[in-house]
Every structure is written in structure tokens, then in C-alpha cells.
Amino acid sequence: MPHHPPPNARPPSHSTGVADVEAAKEGNLGQLLLKAARLYDESARERVNVPGLGRPKPSHLRLFPHIPWEGIRLTALAECVGATKQNVKHAVDELVQLGVLTRVDDPDDGRAKRVVFTARGRRALLRGLGVLGAMEDDLEGAIGKRRLRELKRTLGDVVGFFETS
Q1: Residue 152: which domain range?
Q2: How many Cβ atoms sit within 10 Å of the Cβ of residue 85?
Q3: How far apart are CA 157 and CA 151, in angstroms?
Q4: DSSP letter at 62?
Q5: In terms of Cα–Cα distance, which of 139, 121, 133, 149 is closest to 60?
Q6: What is the pLDDT of residues 36-91, one digit of tens each?
Q7: Which residues contact 46 (CB under 8 A, 6 or more apart)?
Q8: Are 113 and 34 in the same domain?
Q9: What is the tally of structural domains in the chain?
Q10: 48 and 70, same structural domain?
Q11: For the whole model, what pTM was predicted?
């Protein structure tokens, strides 16, 4: 099936000069969000060092925000992170071996399993969230409380927009 851009998509520039390409990248919201997310992720990984677990792998970190308290099926988790079920299964298997996650029976379907955090995993998650809180404090110091509050509100709106579109 051919890909058709949405009717309101901006046409690409026909110029391919370095300055034009860099200017187009710099002014593109998607590029900015992706770069900010990558840098934030790298900074968090460098700061997190969980006793007995070391530094988490990026493939592990991508899963954590999508695992609710009651757990999640592997197929749903793969869909949340935009990865194949096989890749997510591999990361989950590693986290199960580390004692961070476990598989439990799905109360809604006895044939299915859910992935849930173990007590060790919840402690590691809380430690990681503490690191993210410290990073937020650092960012507040750099851009100010009001701008950080506005940024969080705006990013929440962006997430809501894409979750419902």
C-alpha cells in the first residue's frame, strides 16, 4: 500500500544544500523532540547505577514506562514501544533473569501471561524515577520553574494529541 502524506503535510524543500537541510532539521519539531528524548535518555542512563544490576540497557529502559502496576501482556507491550514481539520478549527475558520482572497468569485470560515488576524491579524503578526527578531539578535550575511547568504541560498536551489521533 503506497504511503500518502496527510493533506496538511508540508511539502519537502527541493534544496539539498547542507545549510538548507540543517535549517530544516533545526526548525522541525519532530527532530527537536527526538533529539531531546535521546539526550535525556543518555543522561539518565549515565546517572542510573542500580546496585546488583548496574546500568540499564536502552532496550530495558524503553519498556519501563509502559508496564503498569497490574502488568501488561507481551503483545501489548510490544505495541506500546513500537517493537516486534520477539525483540520485546528478548528484553523481558533478560529482565526476568535479572529479577526485575516476572510473568504471572493474566486474570482475564488463563492462557495468557502478564509481565509485572518484582519487588526488586519496583525498587530499581523508584531509584530510576529518583534520578529523573534530580534531572528535572537540574533542568528547572537551567530554564526556570515557570518555563519547566509550561514545558511539562505542553508535552502532556502533545502526548494527549498523539494518543488520540
Answers
A1: 27-55+119-165
A2: 15
A3: 10
A4: T
A5: 121
A6: 999 998 898 888 877 777 778 888 989 999 999 999 999 999 999 999 999 999 99
A7: 55
A8: no
A9: 2
A10: no
A11: 0.74
